[in-house]
Fold this sequence. Notes:
The chain has 6 helices and 7 strands. By secondary structure, the protein is α/β, with parallel strands linked by helices. It has a single domain (3-196), classed as Maf protein (Alpha-Beta Complex), CATH 3.90.950.10. Helix 1 links the parallel strand 1 (3-6) and strand 2 (25-26). Helix 3 (89-99) packs across helix 4. It is elongated. Belongs to the Maf family. YhdE subfamily. Its EC number is 3.6.1.9.
Amino acid sequence: MRRVILASSSPRRIELLKQFGIKFEIIPSNVDESINQSLSVEENVIQLAKKKAQEVFIKLGEDSKQSLIIAADTVVYVEGIILGKPSNEDEAFWMLRKISGKWHTVYTGVCVIDGPSERILVEYEKSNVYIKQMSDEDILRYISTKEPFDKAGAYAIQGFGSLIVERIEGCFYNVVGLPLYRLNIMLQKLGYDLMKGEL
Length: 199
């Protein structure tokens, strides 16, 4: 019996996978998600997604041979700077001010490890997002919702953050944290298909 593992405790990623009626387990990775500004944004998300999946693969031991592991890592890229999750209110304020009134790019690296075939696939998706011009008061009001603190770039497109997102180009679910179209392409390469409920 194959075990499907989501290597994340992100409520957004959990909800996105649940909508397909898939039975899966949640085993979060404990990988350090620190951003390496000396690497490209693509390298950052690909490396972190792969590290997360591999850590859970090792954690499973013998069970890894019958497991399909899905991991993802999301960051925001603006004006040459990679933004992860803010660790406090000051960081959240700085990030939101940084992306206010301009376009930024959201990158998500996705790694799928197929235990039975021992294949590892790693890809990334990117989307462009325009955040409305916000006053300091707007930013503080948004921070007071507590929504920014576990989100790359300090906002959630599907929550109160939807009120500050003016435009988006590309995959919406990528901005949420799990690009479903990209994920399914990867799964199809391994012989699975979310559309057919094959996982």
